[in-house]
UniProtKB/TrEMBL annotation, chain A:
EC numbers: 4.7.1.1
Function as written in the Swiss-Prot or TrEMBL entry: Catalyzes the breakage of the C-P bond in alpha-D-ribose 1-methylphosphonate 5-phosphate (PRPn) forming alpha-D-ribose.
Family in the record: Belongs to the PhnJ family.
Provenance organism: Vreelandella neptunia
InterPro entries: PhnJ
UniProt key word Endoplasmic reticulum: no
Protein origin, superkingdom: Bacteria
Catalysed reactions, as listed in the record: alpha-D-ribose 1-methylphosphonate 5-phosphate + AH2 + S-adenosyl-L-methionine = alpha-D-ribose 1,2-cyclic phosphate 5-phosphate + methane + 5'-deoxyadenosine + L-methionine + A + H(+)
Protein name as catalogued: Alpha-D-ribose 1-methylphosphonate 5-phosphate C-P lyase
Keyword terms of this UniProt record: 4Fe-4S, Iron, Iron-sulfur, Lyase, Metal-binding, S-adenosyl-L-methionine
Automatic annotation (TrEMBL), chain B:
The ABC transporter domain, residue ranges: 9-250
Keywords attached to this entry: ATP-binding, Lyase, Nucleotide-binding
Protein's recorded name: Phosphonate C-P lyase system protein PhnL
Gene that produces this protein: phnL
PROSITE patterns to which the protein is assigned, alphabetical: ABC_TRANSPORTER_1 (PS00211), ABC_TRANSPORTER_2 (PS50893)
Recorded family membership: Belongs to the ABC transporter superfamily.
Pfam entry (one): ABC_tran
Molecular function (Gene Ontology), one example: lyase activity
SMART domains in the record: AAA
InterPro entries: AAA+_ATPase (IPR003593), ABC_transporter-like_ATP-bd (IPR003439), ABC_transporter-like_CS (IPR017871), CP_lyase_PhnL (IPR012701), P-loop_NTPase (IPR027417)
Domain of life: Bacteria
Transmembrane segments: none
From TrEMBL, chain C:
GO molecular function, one term: lyase activity
Domain of life: Bacteria
UniProt organism field: Vreelandella neptunia
InterPro entries: AAA+_ATPase, ABC_transporter-like_ATP-bd, ABC_transporter-like_CS, P-loop_NTPase, PhnK
UniProt protein name: Phosphonate C-P lyase system protein PhnK
Domain annotation ABC transporter: ranges: 12-281
First and last residue of the signal peptide: none
Keyword Ion transport (UniProt): no
Cell inner membrane as UniProt keyword: no
Keyword entries, A-Z: ATP-binding, Lyase, Nucleotide-binding
């Protein structure tokens, strides 16, 4: 295994197949993805492979990304909205080296975006694919430990228990306190866990122009929301679905329409709210400047 | 009274026997060839020594005992109903709407109030809660059951008090056929009088009654006719004839 | 007096049901018809096959042989609330519409499960088997309503409180976890959870089984009252003849997987015909 300088002048490993996975594996995953696209929200099992990093670091998303990546794709990787966290940087570098693809931090410039826990603020286009890293794909798992039973429940649309969870939220907190991994119903059929994105991002799932793929490495399940698919967040008539809102605007760019992270700035209780989507924040600052 | 009146209840060649499997299949014939007819508004009193099994006949009419042979028939305006081979589910309706039974012992769910016990036959007929409650209280008051007992479960009552709850429960729904198994046994004379009144009123409504009364005074006052059972009871005087004598009722 | 209407329509029919795990283990050649509004008690000793029969009847276990036929007639609660039982497969069974006889194990699993959830109910002996212990009393009671598609939190809550009251639980405890309830209260909660959709047919497996005698009595009274008020049909499995006497209109006595005697409850208990029934009845202790 040797490092070599590729055409673009970057570092690339030789001796690996393009994008790390062998072609048979990629073909198997693509077939599963086709099924997932055909049945929006349905969890398709796939033969997950070992990736050179531990479960929980996005191995499911990486296998999907590896399977769909072409040499001319431009890859962006975000972790909780940020391009510059260890995880995002590692994955980005990984694909630079094993696939030699171009990478970017710009949402608009990317053709494939792998993400953990966020959907970019900038609306996606029909030329883009968003790949989610999923820890627990089964939305019914919290109430039903048996996989056999949850499959039957999905097959028969027995989704009453999903509202039991929301009911319990309201009973305990006075409102639906689930703020992330908020369950949705896809195309009026399957109840789906959108991965731990904040519920702020749930409305972006609905009728999105981009193809959205979800991969869970440990559980070896993948599922999809095809472009322009109706995605509805579960709720009650008298407790309708609501997204988070903030009194502040982003302290860095002044945006008032983005998802904000609270950042502690010192030991005296100083804090600020900033965009979680770093690229969006930079774009906004660029416009202002 | 017209001659063409038909009885409400009739029995013809009625036999009853018990087979005791625990005693090597021994068969006990306790009744043979009983005939009776009971008119609406009539009180027919079963006569005979204690232990002869008068209750056996009441229990056959009420469905607790099977008829071994013969006919036991209810005569409705629009036809007869043969009780000896009635399917089980038909008895539910008969007991709710047609046959009332005042047994010697009160058999109810423990810890249910006396008032509720009395209301139940009306409620099962679909009478509204309020009305059932009013009628139950009126009857309990008439039977001189102290008001403080109405909300208590009859399990703790004295024999006479339980008896009165039982009578109220039996009379409240005004069934067209009433079976009375010693309703006055443990009552004082004032309350016996109330029961006699209730029976007279029931007669006036046209209720047909089949009763057992050990108290000679009550018997004289309510009986239109008496039916001596001796000749129909093959093992007369032997109290062990019945498999389940009244003293073995479940649960107490 | 006119002859009263004595025969009520059939609700559930067991036709020659056999389910055996081994020789005389299970139930064999069971035939009966349950009518609307009837409470049928199945009595027998442990191992007589009564629980197996209940599992088969209630749709939980396919019999080796025989059929369970359910007769649907009047519009049910689920239909009134707009949930259509027939949606999963309108055409395939040939039964299609809302009325008619359903062969429990010939219809699809989807319809069978929908039936169990919407028109039937099952009360387990151990309330922990029938409750979700991780969520509040209110969530437990209203789950079946949510499964029927009710999506108004306030209404769900009101229904839960109403039902808690009906089973004599303090409605103010609606947000408490079932774990904090006593055994008798948990059983009443399970009953509320089952009856909230006003099912037509309820299966009960020793509902007063693990309870103190004093708690049993109250529960028995409540079950009698609710059965009457809702016009419920009930199939009740019990080994307690006193419970059977108070709750059941009709009894089936089982022994070694077979029905040895069946009929009116009072008749079975006062004038048993079969030698085993005579033994059973005469073996009961009376205080």
């Amino acid at each position: 295994m040797t490092l070599r300088v590729d055409d673009q002048g970057g570092l690339a490993y030789s001796g690996y197949n393009f994008a790390y996975l062998d072609e048979q594996t990629k073909r198997m995953i693509r077939r599963a993805l086709l099924k997932a696209v055909a049945i929006p929200g349905y969890q398709v099992p796939f033969g997950g492979r070992e990736m050179p990093m531990p479960y929980g670091w996005g191995t499911g998303g990486m296998q999907l990304t590896a399977s769909i990546l072409g040499a001319d794709d431009v890859l962006k990787v975000i972790d909780q909205g940020a391009d510059d966290t260890t995880n995002a940087v590692s994955i980005r570098t990984f694909f630079e080296r094993v696939a030699g693809v171009e990478t970017t931090t710009s949402t608009a410039a990317a053709s494939v975006i792998q993400t953990r826990h966020r959907i970019p603020e900038l609306p996606l286009s029909r030329h883009q694919i968003l790949v989610f890293q999923v820890p627990i794909p089964e939305p019914l798992r919290f109430i039903e430990p048996s996989e056999e039973e949850t499959r039957v429940m999905h097959a028969l649309e027995e989704y009453g228990v999903m509202h039991v969870k929301l009911y319990e939220d309201i009973a305990r907190h006075g409102h639906i306190a689930t703020t992330y991994a908020y369950p949705v119903k896809v195309d009026e059929r399957y109840v789906m866990d959108p991965s731990p994105i904040p519920k702020f991002d749930n409305p972006k799932l609905d009728m999105n122009e981009a193809l959205m793929l979800f991969g869970a490495g440990r559980e070896k399940r993948l599922y999809a929301i095809p472009p322009y698919t109706q995605v509805k967040s579960l709720d009650f008539e008298d407790h309708p679905f609501e997204i988070q809102s903030w009194d502040e605007a982003c302290a860095l760019c002044g945006a008032s329409d983005s998802y904000l992270d609270e950042v502690i700035t010192d030991d005296q209780g100083g804090r600020m709210f900033v965009c979680s989507d770093t690229d969006y924040c930079q774009q906004c600052r660029g416009e202002v400047a | 009274m017209t001659a063409i009146r038909q009885p409400f209840l009739s029995a013809s060649a009625l036999d009853k026997s018990f087979v005791l499997h625990a005693q090597s299949g021994q068969q006990l014939d306790v009744m043979r060839g009983l005939e009776l007819s009971l008119m609406p508004g009539e009180c027919l009193v079963l006569a005979g020594r204690s232990g002869i099994g008068k209750s056996t006949l009441l229990k056959m009419v009420n469905g607790n005992y099977r008829v071994s042979a013969g006919r036991l028939t209810l005569h409705f305006d629009d036809g007869e109903l043969e009780l000896s081979d009635l399917p089980a589910q038909a008895w539910h309706v008969l007991r709710r709407d047609v046959i009332g039974y005042v047994s010697q012992f009160l058999r109810v769910v423990p810890r249910v109030s006396a008032r509720q016990v009395v209301m139940e036959p009306l409620l099962s007929q679909g009478v509204a809660q309020d009305e059932a409650c009013c009628r139950a209280e009126a009857l309990l008051a008439r039977l001189n059951l102290p008001k403080r007992l109405w909300d208590l479960a009859p399990g703790t009552f004295s024999g006479g008090e339980q008896q009165r709850v039982n009578i109220a429960r039996g009379f409240i729904a005004e069934h067209p056929l009433l079976l009375l198994d010693e309703p006055t046994a443990s009552l004082d004379s004032a309350n016996r009088d109330v029961v006699v009144e209730l029976i007279q009123e029931a007669k006036a409504r046209g209720t047909a009654m089949l009763g057992i009364f050990h108290d000679e005074d009550v018997r004289e006052r309510v009986a239109d006719r008496q039916l001596p059972l001796e000749e129909h009871m093959l093992r007369a005087g032997d109290a062990s004839t019945a498999v389940n004598d009244d003293t073995q009722e479940l649960p107490r | 007096m006119k002859r009263p209407q004595l025969i009520r329509p059939a609700l559930l029919e067991a036709r020659n049901i056999t389910r055996l795990y081994g020789p005389k283990q299970g139930c064999e050649e069971i035939d009966f018809t349950l009518h609307q509004g009837e409470v049928l008690g199945i009595v027998g000793e442990s191992g007589s096959g009564k629980s197996t029969l209940l599992r088969v009847l209630s749709g939980l276990e396919k019999p080796d042989n025989g059929q369970v036929i359910y007769h649907r007639s009047e519009p049910s609660f689920s239909e009134l609330t707009g949930t259509d039982l027939t949606t999963p497969e309108p055409a395939h069974t040939g039964l299609g519409g809302a009325e008619g006889a359903l062969d429990l194990y010939a219809i699809s699993e989807a319809r069978r499960r929908a039936l169990l959830r919407m028109e039937w109910g099952l009360v387990h002996q151990n309330p922990r088997d029938g409750l979700r212990l991780g969520v509040s009393a209110g969530a437990n009671v209203s789950e079946r309503l949510m499964a029927l598609g009710q999506r108004h939190y306030g209404n769900l809550r009101a229904a839960s409180q109403d039902w808690m009251g009906r089973v004599e639980l303090d409605p103010r405890r609606i947000d408490d976890a079932p774990r904090t309830f006593s055994g008798g209260m948990q059983q009443r909660l399970q009953i509320a959870r089952t009856l909230v959709t006003e099912p037509r047919l309820v299966f009960m497996d020793e509902p007063t089984g693990g309870l103190d005698v004093s708690v049993q009595a109250r529960l028995l009274d409540m079950l009698r009252t609710l059965t009457r008020q809702l016009g419920l049909s009930v199939i009740l499995v019990t080994h307690d003849l006193a419970v059977a006497r108070l709750l059941a209109h009709r009894l089936m006595v089982m022994r070694q997987g077979r029905v040895v005697e069946a009929g009116l409850t009072d008749q079975i208990l006062d004038d048993p015909q079969h030698d085993y029934t005579q033994l059973l009845v005469s073996s009961v202790l009376t205080p």
